[in-house]
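Lecture notes, continued. The same structure-token format from the folding unit now serves as the input rather than the output. Read the line below as a description of shape only.
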């Protein structure tokens, strides 16, 4: 099994979390003056991106614009300042109108970010870089009791000396080739929806929402868990999806064979990042709040005097793996 370490921003997608400006905050906080919003996820890959925007009070009209420039920003690693660069144009792994730096981190590094902009209160945030995901192996097989189900088995050993937080998502694509031709083509990848009914660590009770509305949903198919029930243990996480065997399609009279491929992306999260994603899940599943039968749940933030998230993370991914053959 080949495993690669790669930028969290590239795999999860710049748009996924930076566009999480569609959030809910306590009205007492959001109805006042604008505040500085910051998103940064240090710890995965060589490049750390920092993006700013200005919050829009609930009484104001207009749209939130990301990529706020003219910000006095300071990044420190274990108390040592780290220089930041600005780019107007998009770079590999860096969206346009962002601050960034090339910086590698070690487990336990303490990251502090402070920033100020004209007319806005100075903000600050602190996070810690977690250990890499403690992966042992990833295995796929057709579930013996249900051959129509493809099961992903992710084996890892949790570190006993610390409280740890994890996440997983699975990418899917099809590769296809014309019969008798050696050239191979690939469809665009997408995030697969996984069934976690066989996985106790992912079963979450949504309380009255679950009784009245239905099953729990994970935000952007990013499945998160803590080591509360498995601290220091070796464990195999199990995710299922419908098994799809090779199939044929016809394009302009030519017959092509199609085969599903999968890539497993694994994350080790700081406590702040975990609580942020947990709050996003609570919003997605707050059907009673949408029906005005319960309060709308606020988005977690660890940015003092502002909004957003500075969350440490580490990420790895497998190579593309062919689906199990019949």
């Amino acid at each position: 099994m080949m495993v690669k370490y790669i930028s969290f921003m590239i795999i999860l997608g710049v748009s996924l979390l930076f566009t999480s400006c569609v959030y809910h905050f306590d009205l007492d906080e959001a109805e006042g003056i604008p505040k500085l919003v910051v998103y940064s996820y240090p710890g995965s890959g060589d490049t750390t991106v920092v993006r700013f925007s200005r919050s829009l009070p609930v009484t104001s009209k207009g749209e939130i614009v990301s990529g706020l420039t003219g910000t006095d920003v300071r990044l420190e690693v274990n108390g040592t300042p780290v220089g930041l660069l600005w780019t107007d144009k998009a770079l590999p792994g860096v969206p346009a109108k962002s601050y960034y730096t090339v910086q590698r981190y070690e487990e336990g590094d303490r990251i502090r970010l402070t920033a100020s902009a004209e007319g806005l209160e100075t903000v600050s945030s602190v996070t810690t870089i977690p250990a890499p995901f403690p992966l042992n192996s990833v295995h796929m097989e057709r579930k013996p009791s249900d051959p129509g189900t493809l099961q992903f088995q992710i084996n890892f050993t949790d570190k006993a000396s610390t409280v740890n937080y994890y996440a997983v998502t699975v990418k899917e694509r099809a590769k296809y080739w014309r019969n008798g031709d050696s050239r191979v083509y690939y469809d665009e990848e997408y995030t697969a929806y996984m069934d976690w009914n066989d996985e106790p660590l992912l079963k979450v009770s949504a309380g009255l929402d679950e009784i009245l509305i239905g099953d729990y949903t994970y935000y952007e198919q990013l499945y998160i868990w803590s080591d509360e029930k498995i601290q220091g243990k070796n464990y195999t996480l199990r995710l299922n999806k419908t098994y799809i065997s090779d199939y044929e399609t016809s394009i302009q009279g030519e017959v092509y064979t199609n085969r599903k491929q999968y890539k497993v992306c694994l994350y080790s999260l700081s406590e702040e990042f975990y609580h942020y994603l947990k709050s996003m899940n609570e919003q997605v599943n707050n059907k009673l709040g949408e029906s005005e039968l319960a309060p709308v749940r606020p988005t977690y933030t660890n940015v003092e005097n502002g909004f957003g998230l500075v969350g440490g993370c580490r990420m790895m991914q497998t190579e593309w793996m062919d689906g199990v053959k019949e």
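Point for the exam: Residues 271-284 form the longest helix (14 residues).
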